[in-house]
Amino acid sequence: MISIRRMEEQDLEQVLQIEHATFPNPWRRSFFLSDIHRPDGLCIVAENENRVVGYLVAWGRVEVHIANIAVAAEWRNQGVGTELMRRALEFAAGQQAESVFLEVRVSNLGAQRFYRRFGFVPTYVRRGYYENGEDALIMELALLHE
Ligand SMILES: CC(C)(COP(=O)(O)OP(=O)(O)OC[C@H]1O[C@@H](n2cnc3c(N)ncnc32)[C@H](O)[C@@H]1OP(=O)(O)O)[C@@H](O)C(=O)NCCC(=O)NCCS
Fold first, then answer.
1. DSSP codes of every residue in 102-124
2. Taking the CB of the first residue and of the last residue of the chain, which one, N or C, has fewer CB atoms within 10 A?
3. Over the chain (146 residues), what is each successive 10-residue block's mean pLDDT?
């Protein structure tokens, strides 16, 4: 059973394990630490039986930036990422954001498909964004308010 809650400092060891296993250029502990305390931020973990199985970091008001999302490899394709993203979109809607955006490697087709399911569309390419020179695809979701 998965539950979603705020990220806390004592989660960082497990968060960093997933981060290092997932990304070639992982975030440092200090990045997560400052985001935990950001007033305009959303920093959440997905937990199963007291183990962190995924996390999401977002911030911003009018434009919300999904800065980081990852799910532990053995927990992918089971709806954890969807639940984290659902919370991020609730956060954006709650503060009347106009849009949500993120960067994704042009080669990361699985993540791009995942984002499209929520309505994100590619808007432009940021050349050489990643440490290995790879381009980032910027994907954006416009939020409509009555
Ligand atoms: C991208 C990522 C966060 C998605 O998280 P996830 O937990 O695997 O996502 P979900 O399980 O919610 O959805 C993934 C797929 O599983 C399917 N799925 C969702 N719930 C499911 C369930 N209960 N059972 C089986 N499949 C399910 C979805 O239909 C989705 O299909 P898609 O491939 O067509 O998008 C995760 O794969 C990940 O950490 N990848 C590596 C890191 C990464 O690329 N991060 C993004 C960098 S920009």
1. EEEETT-HHHHHHHHTTT-EEEE
2. C
3. 96 98 95 92 97 97 97 97 98 95 97 98 96 96 83
Atom number, ligand 1, closest to the C-alpha of residue 76: 8
Say if CB 81 and CB 89 are below 8 A apart: no
Q: For residue 83, which atom of ligand 1 is closest to its CA?
A: 12
The residue annotated as part of the active site, out of 63, 83, 103, 140, is 103
Q: Domains of the chain by range and CATH?
A: 2-101 (3.40.630.30)
φ, ψ at 97 (rounded to 5°): -65, 150
Other Cβ atoms less than 10 A from the Cβ of 115: the count is 24
